Amino acid sequence: MSNRLELQEITRTFHDGGNERTILDRLNLEVDEGEFVAVMGPSGSGKSTFLSIAGALLEPTSGRVLLDGASIIGKEKQELSELRLRKIGFIFQSANLIPYLKVEEQLMLVAKLAGMEKAKAGKRAKELLDKMELAHRRTAYPDTLSGGERQRVAIARAFMNDPAVLFADEPTASLDAARGLDVVQMIRKQVREQRKSAVMVTHDDRVLSLCDRVLWLENGKLVER
Ligand SMILES: Nc1ncnc2c1ncn2[C@@H]1O[C@H](COP(=O)(O)OP(=O)(O)OP(=O)(O)O)[C@@H](O)[C@H]1O
Ligand SMILES: [Mg+2]
């Protein structure tokens, strides 16, 4: 199968006071195995909304989302969270760490929920934290981390279960230039070598050359420029 992820005619409206606003308007997207797609667009254009729908965190008003050929719309909550744990990695615009867990525990929790063996999970957590230059912060709580450190924990956590598809919402926003580039290079490496797929929302021109395709969210649709 070559199309890992497919969005078909996705529409999403929000009620805002008495008004109905259409944020996504029959949006289509196909992402292949081994493909890394960047999405750009002005603030408020619907990038996070699009990414949440693609990553099974938000239901569209209409349209279909297919992951490895199977529809993820209308699944039971339980089934959806299993799917997210096993197949999807999500890096949020804000790091979204769990306040009462230490750095290492953030990674171990998602591994445990996905049923990974503890020794294997511990080894993988250590490797990822090393890669993110976070080894020295292993036992720190999120509120004692800098913004960039928090974001790096979130990135390590998203890689923890070796997801087939990675969604990243401005993953480099709170990182310095060198670290930002490192992170995107890491995503690219995973995508290429392990035949993963990734969709990244970004405002950062410097990382676009690492992506296979750049799309713009305009008037509720994804377009090439
Ligand atoms: N739950 C919601 N209820 C009502 N309106 C919403 C909701 N979520 C998003 N919106 C609106 O939809 C529009 C798109 O929001 P979204 O967060 O997708 O934009 P974005 O492109 O990610 O912006 P940014 O670059 O600032 O992160 C915004 O006007 C926002 O206010
Ligand atoms: Mg956003």
TrEMBL record:
Superkingdom of the source species: Bacteria
CC per GO annotation: membrane protein complex; plasma membrane
Topological relation to the membrane, as annotated: Peripheral membrane protein
Species this chain originates from: Tumebacillus avium
The protein's name: Putative hemin import ATP-binding protein HrtA
Family: Belongs to the ABC transporter superfamily. HrtA family.
Keywords: ATP-binding, Cell membrane, Membrane, Nucleotide-binding, Transport
Keyword Transferase: no
